[in-house]
Design brief:
By secondary structure, this protein is an alpha+beta fold. It has four helices and eleven strands; from the N terminus they run ααβββββββββββαα. Strands 2, 3, 4, 6, 7, 8, 9, 10 and 11 form a nine-stranded antiparallel β-sheet that branches. A hairpin with a 2-residue loop joins β2 and β3. The chain starts with 14 loop residues before the first helix and ends in a 5-residue tail after the last helix.
Length: about 180
């Protein structure tokens, strides 16, 4: 499978993006791992929208997430956060509501996380945009009858494995992004 057509772009006055970039650079995440997550492969041609899948980093662990909602800050210093339908830049997004899928075996992801097995419930999380690492093409995800996912082996599954091996660096980068830890 070929690499997605996602190029690194450096917006001139996007301070949120600059903080995102600095957090990952400060933890010296390698360029090969940084390239896909610098802008989450979100472009004007491939905007992020509800029902997209992507890699999310929550509580020091990598998951696959289904985007439920997107929130962006309106103009001004005291602007409020409002729901948006799509975005051509991850830097514009403040928060995302996602359903979380945990990797269970090989390329299978379960809708029920280990933490929620006793209750047999799904897991949803409200995350910062920096925690959304990479949007996935819908063609690499197959939804199973039980609500779980199967990801096609290949380029994106290799990125997932590579990011798992860099979990400590990603965790440190998130701490740099939000030093209060909240």
């Amino acid at each position: 499978m070929s690499e997605p057509s996602c190029e690194f772009r450096f917006p001139q006055y996007d301070f949120t993006f600059l903080r995102h970039l600095k957090a990952h650079q400060r933890e010296s995440i390698t360029p090969s791992a940084f390239r896909p997550i610098s802008e989450a492969c979100i472009t004007a041609l491939r905007p992020l929208q509800a029902d997209d899948f992507g890699f999310v980093f929550i509580d020091g662990k990598l998951y696959t997430g289904l985007v439920i909602t997107l929130h962006s800050k309106t103009a001004g210093k005291y602007g409020k956060h409002a729901a948006v339908t799509d975005s051509s830049s991850i830097a514009v997004i403040s928060y995302l509501g996602v359903q979380v899928f945990e990797n269970t075996t090989a390329n299978h992801f379960s809708a029920t996380l280990q933490a929620t097995v006793p209750l047999d419930t799904r897991y949803y999380q409200h995350i910062f945009s920096i925690q959304f690492l990479l949007v996935l093409p819908s063609s690499v995800i197959t939804i199973q009858r039980n609500g779980g996912l199967v990801m096609e082996n290949g380029y994106h599954m290799n990125i997932f494995r590579d990011l798992i091996s860099k979990a400590n660096k990603l965790k440190a980068a998130l701490k740099v992004f939000n030093p209060r830890g909240g």
